[in-house]
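Intended use. Records like the one below are meant for learning the mapping from a protein sequence to its folded structure. Do not use them to infer anything beyond what is encoded.
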Amino acid sequence: MCDNHNVVEARHDFSKETIRKLSERVGSTCSNPDCAAPTKGPHTDGDKVISVGMACHIHAAAPGGPRYDEGQSEDDRRSIHNGIWLCRTCGTLIDTDEERFPAPLLRAWRAETELTAFKKIGKPSAAAAAPSDGVPFSNDAANSMRRLAEQYVSAGYPNFKVWMFTPDQNDPVYGELRALGLVYFGGPRGGPWRLTQEGVDWIMRNRRL
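Structure written out for the chain above:
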């Protein structure tokens, strides 16, 4: 069972402090590794925060709930160790099909997400680390431009109009790079991709990174 962090019902629910810790231990991201959506952000009111996250019970807070364990004490049910932070969609999902989302799986999700959050502490994202010169890169796009830079430089700075590469055509990252004007399709039917002059300029500015 899941608790909206703003509303705690009169069951064996988490304290406000436990809810806060569940959120902060995963950087306020959804603990479902296939989702990992941010769940908190700024409200238009400068004194408020928007949250679409939920503190969910791994074993239900009351009899009849998903994955209820009658062997747990009241303290066990309220414990942070019986909780997982999820977005509202995933929080609803795990409680509508408890056979598909058993307790061991939820514990694994939480452990994986906490480890990921720990590894990110104090480390800038790839997009922040790459000198984008004002280009609004996503993390994946920044990494892709780094790889292209390595390939372009290792090829001995060929004519950018001739140098080609063939990414996975279903990779949305190259759609982002194309929208930023850094790469383009080699022909009307797709075919190989090429760097634009802007893409080459970016590589030449950052080729030593």
